[in-house]
Amino acid sequence: MMKISQSMAFYGVLFCLVMSVYSLFSTIHNMWQVAPPRLVLLLLVTGCFVTACIGIMKKTTRWGRMQSWMTFFIAPLLGAALLLSLVFTSVFPFEKEYIASLTSPEGTHQIDVYATDGGATTLKGIMAELNGPLWFTKRIFIEHDGTHDLVTQWEGEDLFVINGEMIQLPTADGWF
Questions:
Q1: DSSP states of 113-164 as a string?
Q2: What parts of the sequence cross the membrane (predicted)?
Q3: pLDDT tens digits for 154-164?
Q4: What Cα–Cα distance (Å) separates residue 13 from each residue in 5, 27, 62, 102?
Q5: 137-144 and 125-131 beta bridge pairing
Q6: 52 touches 75 (CB < 8 A)
Q7: Are residues 31 and 63 in the same domain?
Q8: How far apart are CA 111 and CA 128, in angstroms?
Q9: DSSP letters of 150-176?
Q10: Which domain holds residue 59?
């Protein structure tokens, strides 16, 4: 039983590490956000760390002890990074205020539109996110022009115009 929990803790920490790096990458490059929220990752890393601490004290195989030690060193670093990102976003919030939810004519796409305000560092603007399956979202439009003016129009099932800019959405069978 201990051997299984050590492996689960090790692979759980690796999963959290991969999801955290992908979340950062997808935020920078406006790709699909498929990672769970940071708080969920932080809780998973904490559980893996506790399991690794228990695994270090038990007499198991050499591979099991090595997994526990690697988890023991990776989990606090990853947990600190996730906690720092949670604190940073709570202290310096990127405020987005919900404006509207727009659904395509046939109902295959749903777009949430937000008014953004980064405080003194950025102008006011508009941001649109395409909702995917589960909690997945993708930022498809962002405009910082100092206003919250919004003009939208559907040109078809997969073509959307927002403030004069045409956006081609993925087809229903091509989410990714």
A1: EEEEE-GGGS--EEEEEEE-STT-EEEEEEEESS-----EEESSSSEEEETT
A2: 39-57, 69-94
A3: 888 888 888 88
A4: 12, 21, 19, 38
A5: antiparallel
A6: yes
A7: yes
A8: 6
A9: --EEESSSSEEEETTEEEEPPPTT---
A10: 2-91
